[in-house]
Amino acid sequence: MYKEKLRAYDIPPGKRIAEGISLFADDIRVGVFFTEVNNTHIWRQDFGWTLSYAAVGIFDFEDKVNVRVHTEFDVETVTIRPLAADIKPVINHYEDGTTDILFILSDSVTFGQYSVEFNNDRNNTLFIFTGRLQAEPEGDVISINAGTALYEDIKLKEGQTLYIEGGAALYGRVFFADNTRICGRGIVDGSHHANWAWNIKRAFYPIAIRECKNVRLEGISILNPPCWVCGVANSDYVYFDNVKIISAKANSDGISIQSSRNVYIDNCFIRTWDDSIVVKSYLFNVNSHDIYVNNCLIWTDLAQCMEIGFETNKGKSDKPQMYNIEFRNVTVLHQLHKASISIHNADDTEVFNVLWENITIEEIDVPENGDGWNIWLDFTNVPAGDFSIPGSTPRWTTVLKRGSIHDITIRNVKVIDDKSKASYRIWSSNDGSDIYNIKFENAYNYRQ
After folding, report:
1. CA nearest 254: which of 304, 202, 312, 198?
2. Which residue range(s) make up the domain with 229?
3. Predicted structure pTM score
4. Is-cis flag, bond preceding 137, omega within 30?
5. What is the pLDDT of residues 187-236, one digit of tens each?
6. Burial, 340: exposed, middle or buried (Cβ in 10 Å; 0-12, 13-18, 19+)?
7. Residue 43: pLDDT over 70
8. For the chain, what is the domain count?
9. Is the pLDDT confidence value at 134 over 80?
């Protein structure tokens, strides 16, 4: 439904209504639907995880909006993340056991995505994805209108835009070309695609950006991928803005950057059951460099949050390098398995000029009975495999010769709630001579 400064989007076709939760923006009902999440934090070779559901509601607004969340279960406490938004809800209880949760959102707040967690239980969550009002795109546009769903793959031609309106869904893959764009408030959903468990360890990611220049992804939500979510391979000038990702299945990395340049990831929400944002090098003599991540929210149920590696020279390049990589103003809502900040140089690459700055980790909670690593920062320059790094695989090492990690800055890292008392690890292959010029400034529990 629309009003002058508000657009509330309905449930996309094919998605299940979220029982027990209703969402209202300025008294206009917002469609709330379930999407799959994986609340387990341990890898199983038989792919026998128990998947759960989280609720999602999407709307756009300008200025301020009064939000009401109605639950058909009793809510004693509510945590709204990111905590920096400083949202203090009012909770009203009713005799029938239901609850209203009231709060105000403002478009002056940095982030447009929120995690509403009930009764101190991150497994009972409503995600609210908001944005500013936008006009429909012009030019050569393929449109999927509100209330409709398309069950096919789309191969964009040079200069085309795919517009998925709020309340619409694409159950297919998107292949990009030069100067292409996908935008809107609708969803790309991988529910109908075979995943690793069903398809003999072969699966296809829904967002395929291969050998492209000038590609933009704006505003959409990408849900239920069967494996990697967004694959960026040998591409140049790729922009992500206000993209929302939730994944639950095996190897469902959020944004996987391979041998690419000039990739910009801004204002995104990424919850994954594998690495959230990962930079690798896969191709012969094609380096990954100039990667910039800013103002993002990350929630990682399995593996790493902001990762460089393990595969740093999969293509066996002559003089491999990875450099000019920055993560700024990133909030990790939940670190539940492995490190928030990591470089795993499993090959002979020179990794340098890397920055993490203004990083907030709201919760570290690595289960003792899981297979995660209780560390918030992890820099290793040793061969991957069970003989050196528990929990990794020799397949991640391609070149046995070691590279180096140097000129790395970690500045202003804050951890709010460290339930696991996490430490950090810096692991060299040659008595420290291959890891050098690592600068820590105001970094959580680091001791020189």
Report:
1. 304
2. 141-443
3. 0.97
4. no
5. 999 988 877 766 666 788 899 999 999 999 999 999 999 999 999 999 99
6. buried
7. yes
8. 2
9. yes
**CA of residue 441 relative to chain centroid, distance:** 26
Q: Are 29 and 90 in contact (CB under 8 A)?
A: no
Domain stop point among 110, 131, 152: 131
pLDDT tens for each residue of 265-307: 999 999 999 999 999 999 999 999 999 999 999 999 999 999 9
CA distance 11 to 147: 8
CATH number at residue 63: 2.60.350.10
Please check whether residues 113 and 51 belong to one and the same domain: yes
C-alpha distances in angstroms, 363 versus 43, 76, 120, 273, 355? 21, 20, 12, 17, 22
HEC sequence for the chain: CEECCEEECCCCCCCEECCCEEEEECCEEECEEEEEECCCCCCCCCCCCCCEEEEEEEEEECCEEEEEEEECCCCCCEEEECHHHCCCCEEEECCCCCEEEEEEEECCCCCCEEEEEECCCCCCEEEEEEECCCCCCCCCEEEECCCCEECCCEECCCCCEEEECCCCEECCCEECCCCEEEEECCEEECCCCCCCCCCCCCCCCCEEEECCEEEEEECCEEECCCCCCEEEECCEEEEEECCEEECCCCCECCEEEECCEEEEEECCEEEEECCCEEEECCCCCCCEEEEEEECCEEEECCCCCEEEEECCCCCCCCCCEEEEEEEEEEEEEEECCCCCEEEEECCCCEEEEEEEEEEEEEEECCCCCCCCCCEEEEEECCCCCCCCCCCCCHHHCCCCCCCEEEEEEEEEEEEEEECCCCEEEEECCCCCCCEEEEEEEEECCCCC
Task: For residue 370, give the nearest of 340, 334, 338 by alpha carbon.
Answer: 338
Nearest Cα neighbor of 37 from 123, 149, 114, 166 is 123
What is the residue type of 402?
A: R
